[in-house]
Amino acid sequence: MAKPTNAADMARAVGVDPKAFRQALRNANFPWHKLNDDWIVDLDSAEHSSMRTVLVTLLKRKKAS
Description:
- By secondary structure, the chain is mainly alpha-helical.
- 57% of the residues lie in helices and 9% in strands.
- The protein has helices spanning 7-13, 18-28, 46-64; strands at residues 4-6, 40-42.
- The protein has a two-stranded antiparallel ribbon with strand order 1-2.
- α1 (7-13) crosses α2.
- The longest helix is centred in the C-terminal third of the chain and has 19 residues, at 46-64.
- It starts with a strand and ends with a helix.
């Protein structure tokens, strides 16, 4: 059975502000995410991979500043 994770846990794990991460996820406008739904996905799913990509982008911006 797949283990779920959420945006806040993912962000905190790497030192990113959860609110900033959720805003970046909303800006990404993923077709699989419905407005006002929680950002909960199964680990290693396609959705999790998409969220990781956004998180890496935020980390790169954080390091550059």
